[in-house]
Design a protein that fits this description.
By secondary structure, this protein is an alpha/beta fold. It is built from eleven helices and ten strands. A hairpin with a 2-residue loop joins strand 3 (about 90-95) and strand 4 (about 100-105). Helix 1 crosses helix 10 (about 235-250). The chain starts with a helix and ends with a strand.
Amino acid sequence: MEYSFTDYLLAKQSVDDRALNRHVGEALVASLPAQPIRIIEVGAGIGTMLMRLIRWNVLQKADYVLVDEMAANIEYASEWIPRWAADNGLSAERSGENQLRIFDQSRDVRITFEHADVFDFIQKNPAPADLLIAHAVLDLLPMRESLPKLFSLTKNLAWFTINFDGVTSLEPVIDPALDATIERLYHESMDKRPTGGDSRTGRHLFGHLRNAGADILAAGASDWVVYGTDGKYPADEKFFLQFILHFFEETLGGHPELDANEFAAWLSKRRAQIERGELVYIAHQMDFLVKVQ
């Protein structure tokens, strides 16, 4: 199977739709200033959060800066967003190499695509936005050093979503001891990333945000919960699960604490569970809306 990361980002849209905390989302809507507003999203991938905010009627008029360090993501977003707009009754027009406008009678969103490392972008960003978004990003970064820099991107509000918080569950159990070892090693890999990261980012953000001088306006769980019904998964969530197992394989393949044959057999059994629509996957995460001082 070919494991395209952009296909993974597309496949997890429905998973994220269910997961995003409604209480935190309602607080966001209540806190936004009058539109038009300027938004910066870092680690924005292919633009699925922007499309979600339009689908959910949160955005009507906005300038939206979409920042990602992966050229493939930016290229995909630049081509996919106009197709999405056309499929959803909006017009799209380009006004420059990295500029796009999508609009109809009630909505007008101007998008800027920025291929850049987030911290390089911070250094050149000319003006802070009304809202900073980081979706499934903060658990990849060293929080203590990163938050003050990220906060320079916003005048007031930051919405930090899908921050992993130390719980991965795969059911049904294959081997209790082996399952527990694989989960532990997978989480440890998050804590040992050379770029930073924390497998318990969600709970630790309460302290990190306070220490960075931010006020937490709302917080709540945003768990991924994926399961099949009558042997089938909704939308493209079968591929999403296959990609999650690909993450496990890429991360833990060759690990000295795992017997290679046992791990290969475990992966094979998990993939068979997906084919039968039996695998249940749960990941605990947290969303935050914060006000920056």
